[in-house]
């Protein structure tokens, strides 16, 4: 399992989610802290492509052996892609939470929502 | 030959399933001879309804069958062998008399649809048990039907729904404390209500202000365990009942912890409308490795019309009968037939054996044993690492927090639990209630001797001492069990839940 | 101190001193408000010594007429099959009887492996890939299947064959009222589910359909046709639920080959006693797509830290203790001991034995049906194929006939009028391998005489 890290190029939601903004889309996932608290991820229940997500609302579930966690959307938009590889290797969320462990890609419906999110330093500040 | 020197004998005896034993053609069963004129199979059951190939069931002789399952049984820890202080589960001694009387043909081979006139003994037993449970709970109307505590909870919430509907009210929420057993919120959803959590105050009881804020006319019911899962008897119970009744809601008593209070205080006297009993806890029906259970409910006068049918009635001539319309506004049935009668026989025998005084003695001793064990752990210095989560005293069980142990010694509650297995004890309940960090919920029950409690306390102290020297010992425990720690993540990622044949 | 507690006066003194209180009562007084404490002893009889309790329970048992006291043809959901001695022996073992649910897998391997074996056996029996470790019993298993369907497709209409056990229909209705589903019942025609009415009732709002195999009248349903009609009318999202009697599955096509998505049933006839209706177990098997919506415990295979094969409870995130209000069911444990009896029974019967038992029942049931229908005043209620149970009409009051038969030591079966107004003259007769040809002949004699006597009585009073 990787060491704790919170990359500077990402934006963060206080419910332990990250977003990587690419023009009018964003890739979403859960933070190192979230995966560490959850333990080894054994199952991901992803949303369907084409469905919409709302900032602050859950859009997926990740499960460890003894816990289920809602994944909260940091931003609103329409799902354009889900990480299908997590079906066979959900532990990518533990091993590489900001890379292979990404969950979904969305097309942003309100790019101004990014202003509400935290930068890495501010997010890390919420963890102590 | 190194293989023979590694591990315990049980560990070397690798697990094989019954499907991996036997050989084609072996059998334990001999079918009775065909004693009627044989008719063409196709004429009796056309081919389109027929099974093409037999289910691949085991093919074993009786000796193989017996040896397989006796060996398997020895891979279990059990209450008859050792101390089992599993909190919230009331692992008290299971008297063997109960197995004997439940096995009498008049009980065991009685068909559930036998006409009532030919089932008078069974109906009398159920009638007597209903009255006894009504007296213990202080709620006079009893239905024995539910199959388990969770089933009794569903009955109670559906009764609540019927109660409100009968008054033309649509209520949408059920309150549960954040310390509740998981069955409470799950039941609420199944019964079509929304769960609203009520907080816990600093003393481990219901946060009365939070309750007051959330209790309104949209609330159908408050589900409460008292003493609760923290082992705390809520001192505000009278006020809580007033708040709940004040908004017209019902008050539900989760009877999981009834073993603390039999003959001492009654749910009905505290203001509860509905209680479920776990006959497999307080009334010592054996747990069977996870069932069967039995979850009768008792209710107050205002809930009576909605109870499940059929109802056991006693006619003027003293004969017992089953009335399929006995409760005029019944919610209906919750299962087939009359409930888990075999469990009723056992629990009824238990009540007959103990009587009023014995039941009170059971609760008194359960509370004494729990407090004594807590005191012994304190005397041995365990409290520094495993402090009591709430209060000073406890009822029949108590919750310790392993948080300081984790911080100071580097072992988690799970590690302590696994190391206890090497000492020959079943560990207490771990990681419940959720409210307490690294929780350890300990329920010794009344049937344990003081010597057993002393020895268990010593074992806990010893594990903490040992962890001070070398935490790895606990972290990798157990060592002596039939298998060691199992890879649960692998099991969940790629579920293998049946054997491929 | 009672026979089950061990605190002597000396123990009590020392224990109280260690706690730092003066009396046991003080422990209660300090924690429970005086206003609610019970100030009197419970109003229950005094306790009794073991031999007296035994005598009392023996006396109650003697007031019942058990399957040992009469030749019984009662079935209708529970059946008097022989329970082999090995089951008594194994279920009486402390290691199976007295543990709790396997929360500590390292010391519960016996229990967990039994669950795994049981799941395999149920999966084989039903032809469905997924089985849980058992639920309470049959009718509530039907209701749980309804809840699964509700979670799966969010629809709110259940279409239910009237051939489903009346207790299962009632239980489903009780549950469905809670979680907000409506029930449409489809009548029987000629002993089986009315195919036209069934197709008519099913539409795009249908969450699940329910039928029994064989149905309550003992008739073999065309399960494939019922399932196909559900697909046609309600699409793939509709959950097809079959409630099966497990013993006839030795000869009947498995539900997994008939388009059934969820197969449930009462497991009593697999090695469990009648016990006046319980405890027994319900089995619950399903298609793969419903794996994560299954209620109850499921055991899975894995390895331990040293690589040894072992078993654990798995997919627990479905369950109430983790998912709480979003759980797939509120059920807490299984019916582990009863399911163990079921597993041992299936292994005792074995691969060939279950088939032989089914064939024997087919033959004897046919013989009994022929014998009874040849009697004056007795006729077939339907002509459908049957496996172990059949229904007849009597030209005499059924309850009175049953009473006359019981007075002769024969219980001829179940009065259908108790649950079906339209079959007020119906008698449901069940067979097990314990009812020989001689027993059937005796039934025919006694029933024939009883019907004749009641017809005379009715004729005389008319």
Q: How would you sum up this structure, described in words?
A:
The complex is a heterotrimer of chains A (128), B (501) and C (462). In chain A, 15% of the residues lie in helices and 33% in strands. Chain A has 3 helices and 9 strands; from the N terminus they run βββαβββββαβα. The longest helix of chain A is centred in the last third of the chain and has 8 residues, at 120-127. The radius of gyration of chain A is 13 Å and the shape is globular. Chain A starts with 10 loop residues before the first strand and ends with a helix. Chain B has 501 residues and is an alpha/beta fold. Helix content of chain B is 37%, strand content 10%. Chain B contains 18 helices and 12 strands. With 462 residues, chain C is an alpha/beta fold. Chain C has helices spanning 9-19, 24-29, 50-62, 85-92, 94-97, 109-126, 138-153, 166-179, 195-201, 223-234, 320-323, 336-373, 398-407, 437-461; strands at residues 71-72, 130-131, 157-161, 182-186, 188-189, 192-193, 206-213, 239-244, 262-266, 282-286, 299-303, 309-313, 378-380, 389-394, 410-411, 414-415, 426-430. In chain C, helix 6 (109-126) packs parallel to helix 12 (336-373). Classes of the chains: A alpha+beta (128), B alpha/beta (501), C alpha/beta (462). At the B-C interface, helix 4, helix 5, helix 6, helix 7 and helix 8 of B face helix 1, helix 2, helix 3, helix 4 and helix 5 of C.
Question: In a nutshell, what does this entry contain?
Answer:
With 128 residues, chain A is an alpha+beta fold. Helices cover 15% and strands 33% of the residues of chain A.
Which keywords apply here?
heterotrimer; A: 128 residues; alpha+beta; 6-stranded antiparallel beta sheet; 3-stranded antiparallel beta sheet; 15% helix; C: 462 residues; alpha/beta; 7-stranded mixed beta sheet; 4-stranded antiparallel beta sheet; 14 helices
Draw up the topology in text.
The complex is a heterotrimer of chains A (128), B (501) and C (462).
Chain A (H helix, E strand, L loop, with lengths): L10 E3 L3 E6 L2 E6 L1 H7 L4 E3 L6 E2 L4 E6 L4 E5 L4 E6 L9 H4 L8 E5 L11 H8 L1
Antiparallel strand pairs in A: 1-2, 2-3, 3-9, 4-6, 5-8, 6-7, 8-9
Chain B lengths: L1 H4 L3 H4 L28 H4 L17 H12 L22 H7 L2 H4 L11 H18 L3 E3 L5 H18 L6 E5 L5 H8 L3 E5 L9 H7 L4 E6 L12 H10 L3 E6 L11 H4 L3 E4 L19 E3 L11 E4 L5 E4 L17 H39 L18 E4 L1 H7 L3 H10 L6 E2 L8 E4 L7 H20 L2 H4 L12 H6 L8
Helix pairs in contact in B: 5-13, 7-13, 8-9, 13-16
Chain C lengths: L8 H11 L4 H6 L20 H13 L8 E2 L12 H8 L1 H4 L11 H18 L3 E2 L6 H16 L3 E5 L4 H14 L2 E5 L1 E2 L2 E2 L1 H7 L4 E8 L9 H12 L4 E6 L17 E5 L15 E5 L12 E5 L5 E5 L6 H4 L12 H38 L4 E3 L8 E6 L3 H10 L2 E2 L2 E2 L10 E5 L6 H25 L1
Parallel strand pairs in C: 1-15, 3-4, 3-7, 7-8, 8-9
Antiparallel strand pairs in C: 2-10, 5-6, 9-10, 11-12, 13-14, 14-17, 16-17
Helix pairs in contact in C: 4-12, 6-12, 7-8, 9-10, 12-14, 13-14
């Amino acid at each position: 399992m990787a060491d704790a890290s919170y990359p500077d190029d990402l934006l963060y939601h206080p419910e332990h989610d990250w977003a990587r903004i690419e023009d009018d889309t964003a890739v979403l996932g859960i933070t190192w802290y979230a995966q560490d608290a959850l333990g080894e991820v054994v199952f991901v229940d992803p949303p369907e492509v084409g469905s919409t997500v709302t900032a602050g609302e859950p859009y997926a579930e990740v499960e460890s052996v003894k816990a289920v966690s809602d994944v909260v959307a940091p931003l609103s938009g329409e799902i354009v892609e889900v990480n299908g590889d997590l079906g066979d290797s959900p532990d990518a969320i533990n091993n590489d939470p900001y890379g292979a462990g990404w969950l979904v890609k969305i097309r942003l419906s309100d790019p101004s929502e990014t202003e509400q999110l935290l930068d890495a330093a501010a997010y890390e500040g919420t963890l102590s | 030959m190194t293989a023979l020197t590694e591990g315990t004998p049980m560990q070397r005896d690798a697990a094989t399933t019954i499907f991996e034993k036997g050989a084609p053609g072996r059998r334990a069963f001999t079918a009775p001879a065909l004693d009627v004129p044989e008719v063409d199979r196709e004429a009796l059951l056309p081919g389109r309804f027929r099974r093409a190939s037999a289910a691949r069931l085991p093919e074993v002789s009786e000796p193989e069958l017996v040896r397989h399952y006796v060996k398997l049984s020895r891979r279990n820890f059990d209450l008859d062998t050792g101390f089992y202080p599993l909190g919230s589960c009331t692992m008290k001694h299971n008297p063997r008399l109960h197995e004997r009387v439940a096995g009498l043909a008049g009980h065991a081979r009685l068909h559930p649809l036998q006409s009532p006139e030919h089932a008078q003994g069974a109906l009398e037993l159920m009638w007597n048990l209903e009255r006894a449970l009504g007296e213990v709970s202080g709620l006079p109307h009893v239905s024995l039907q539910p199959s388990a505590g969770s089933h009794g909870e569903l009955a109670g919430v559906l009764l609540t729904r019927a109660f409100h509907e009968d008054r033309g009210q649509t209520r949408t929420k059920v309150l549960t404390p954040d310390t509740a057993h998981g069955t409470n919120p799950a039941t609420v959803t199944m019964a079509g209500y929304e769960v609203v959590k009520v907080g816990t105050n600093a003393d481990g009881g219901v946060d009365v202000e939070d309750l007051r804020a959330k209790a309104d006319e949209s609330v159908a019911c408050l589900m409460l365990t008292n003493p609760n899962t923290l082992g705390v008897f809520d001192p505000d119970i009278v006020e809580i009942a007033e708040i709940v009744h004040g908004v017209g809601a019902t008050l539900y008593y989760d009877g999981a912890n009834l073993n603390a209070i039999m003959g001492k205080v009654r749910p009905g006297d505290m203001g509860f409308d509905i209680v479920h009993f776990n006959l497999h806890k307080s009334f010592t029906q054996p747990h069977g490795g996870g069932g069967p259970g039995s979850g009768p409910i008792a209710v107050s006068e205002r809930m009576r019309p909605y109870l499940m049918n059929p109802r056991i009635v006693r006619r003027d001539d003293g004969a017992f009968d089953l009335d399929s319309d006995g409760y005029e506004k019944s919610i209906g049935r919750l299962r087939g037939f009359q409930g888990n009668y075999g469990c009723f026989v056992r629990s009824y025998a238990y009540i007959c054996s103990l009587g009023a005084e014995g039941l009170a003695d059971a609760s008194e001793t359960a509370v004494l044993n729990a407090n004594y064990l807590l005191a012994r752990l304190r005397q041995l210095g365990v409290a520094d690492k495993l402090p009591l989560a709430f209060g000073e005293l406890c009822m029949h069980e108590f919750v310790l927090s392993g948080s300081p142990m984790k911080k100071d010694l580097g072992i988690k509650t799970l590690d302590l639990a696994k190391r206890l297995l090497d000492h020959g004890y079943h560990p207490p309940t771990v990681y419940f209630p959720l409210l307490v960090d690294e929780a350890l919920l300990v329920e010794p029950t009344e049937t344990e001797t003081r010597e057993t409690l002393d020895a268990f306390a010593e074992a806990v102290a010893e594990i903490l001492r040992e962890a001070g020297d070398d935490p790895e010992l606990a972290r990798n425990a157990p060592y002596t069990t039939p298998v060691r720690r199992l890879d649960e993540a692998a099991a969940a990622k790629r579920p293998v839940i049946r054997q491929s044949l | 101190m009672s026979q089950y507690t061990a605190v002597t006066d000396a123990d009590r003194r020392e224990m109280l001193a260690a706690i730092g209180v003066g009396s046991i009562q003080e422990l209660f007084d300090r924690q429970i408000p005086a206003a609610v404490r019970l100030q009197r002893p419970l109003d229950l009889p005094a306790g009794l010594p073991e031999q007296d309790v035994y005598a009392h329970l023996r006396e109650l048992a003697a007031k019942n007429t058990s399957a040992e006291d009469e030749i019984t043809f009662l079935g209708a959901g529970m059946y008097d099959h022989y329970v082999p001695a090995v089951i008594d022996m194994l279920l009486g073992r402390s290691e199976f009887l007295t543990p709790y649910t396997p929360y500590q897998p390292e010391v519960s391997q016996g229990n967990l492996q039994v669950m795994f074996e049981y799941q395999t056996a149920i999966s084989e029996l039903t032809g469905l890939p997924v089985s849980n470790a058992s639920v309470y019993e049959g009718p509530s298993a039907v209701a749980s299947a309804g809840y699964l369907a509700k979670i799966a497709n969010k629809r709110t209409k259940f279409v239910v064959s009237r051939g489903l056990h009346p207790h299962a229909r009632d239980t489903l209705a009780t549950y469905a009222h809670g979680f907000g589903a409506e029930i449409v019942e489809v009548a029987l025609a000629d002993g089986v589910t009315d195919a036209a009415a069934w197709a008519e009732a099913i539409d795009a709002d249908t969450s699940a359909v329910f039928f029994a195999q064989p149905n309550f009248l003992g008739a073999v349903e065309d399960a494939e046709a019922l399932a196909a009609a559900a697909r046609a009318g309600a699409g793939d999202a509709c959950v097809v639920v079959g409630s099966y009697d497990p013993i006839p599955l030795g000869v009947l096509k498995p539900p997994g080959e008939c388009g059934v998505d969820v197969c449930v049933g009462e497991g009593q006839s697999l090695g469990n006693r009648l016990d006046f209706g319980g405890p027994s177990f319900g089995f619950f098997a399903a298609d793969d797509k419903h794996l994560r919506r299954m209620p109850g415990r499921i055991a899975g295979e894995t390895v331990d830290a040293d690589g040894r094969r072992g078993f654990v409870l798995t997919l627990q995130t479905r369950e109430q203790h983790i998912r709480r209000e979003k759980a797939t069911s509120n059920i807490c444990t299984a019916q582990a001991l009863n399911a163990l009896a079921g597993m041992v029974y299936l292994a005792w019967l074995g691969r060939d034995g279950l088939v032989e038992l089914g064939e024997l029942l087919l033959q004897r049931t046919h013989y009994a049906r022929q014998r009874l229908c040849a009697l004056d005043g007795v006729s077939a209620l339907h002509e459908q194929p049957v496996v172990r149970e059949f229904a007849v009409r009597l030209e005499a009051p059924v309850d009175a006939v049953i009473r006359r038969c019981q007075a002769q030591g024969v219980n001829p079966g179940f009065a259908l009028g108790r649950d079906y107004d339209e079959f007020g003259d119906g008698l449901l007769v069940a067979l097990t391998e314990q009812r020989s040809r001689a027993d059937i002949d005796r039934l025919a004699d006694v029933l024939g005489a009883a019907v004749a006597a009641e017809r005379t009585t009715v004729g005389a009073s008319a």
